[in-house]
Amino acid sequence: MNIIFEDKDILVLSKPAGITVNRSDTTHYEKTLQEWVEEYLKVPRVSQEEARGTRDTLGTRDTFLSRAGIVHRLDKETSGVLIIAKNPSSFENLQAQFKNRTVKKIYLALVHGIVAPEEGDIRVPVGRLPWNRKRFGVLAGGRDAITKYKVLSIKYLGEEPLSLVQLFPETGRTHQIRVHLKHIGHPIFADFLYAGRKTARNDRKLLGRVFLHASKISFTNPKTGESISFEASLPEELEKFLKTLV
């Protein structure tokens, strides 16, 4: 892991693509970021059974242990900046900041087509699809979700236009950015879940991961009250791919 910043209360990482953040029943054969954090910070490991009970019935310290201080998450193939609390009080404070939507996040994505208008927001509810529990979509009964965006540039892959877009999610629903961009007809390049089977297959001949990167996060230091920001530079594989476009 690339450590961007660390003090006695928080740890800020730049997560590479390809690493699952949280341990679960489906991660038995891979090392997750949670296990790396447990080893690095020497956080006692909590079993999945204990973790399930903890989230429902126990206090902040136990929830902190069950998640190894990980306050939020990124999808496995999404790279970028991630905050970890190093103690229960910081964990509780940061959780409250996310809940109150005072944490500001910026993502970069390369999407199919020319996004118009160049600036706007997407406000449609997102929920888990009843017929496919691994995917999310725009559903009438979903949770409110807001993503603002700004087009930075238009690139071309041969004759196909691609838009490099900066995204500002105001809510943090699972797969929100990916679902919202698909909803407006501009799925993320190489998104195996939402770009469509044929499109994703062709994309992945050129880039083996979703082109989505958490580039910046701003929040309040849980102990000092100071406003702080951290950035994670675009990974090498995404930089190289951009250079192949015109």
Structural features:
single chain, 246 residues, alpha+beta, 7 helices, globular
Topology:
Layout: E1 2-6, E2 10-15, H1 33-41, H2 48-57, H3 60-67, E3 79-85, H4 88-99, E4 104-112, E5 119-123, E6 126-129, E7 132-138, E8 146-157, E9 160-169, H5 176-183, H6 197-203, E10 212-220, E11 227-231, H7 236-243
Parallel strand pairs: 3-10
Antiparallel strand pairs: 1-2, 2-3, 4-9, 4-10, 5-8, 6-7, 8-9, 10-11
Helix pairs in contact: 2-3, 3-4
Protein model, in words:
This protein is an alpha+beta fold and 246 residues long. It has one domain: Pseudouridine synthase, CATH 3.30.2350. Helices cover 25% and strands 32% of the residues. It is built from seven helices and eleven strands. Strands 1, 2, 3, 4, 5, 8, 9, 10 and 11 form a nine-stranded mixed β-sheet that branches. A hairpin with a 6-residue loop joins strand 10 and strand 11. The mean pLDDT is 93.
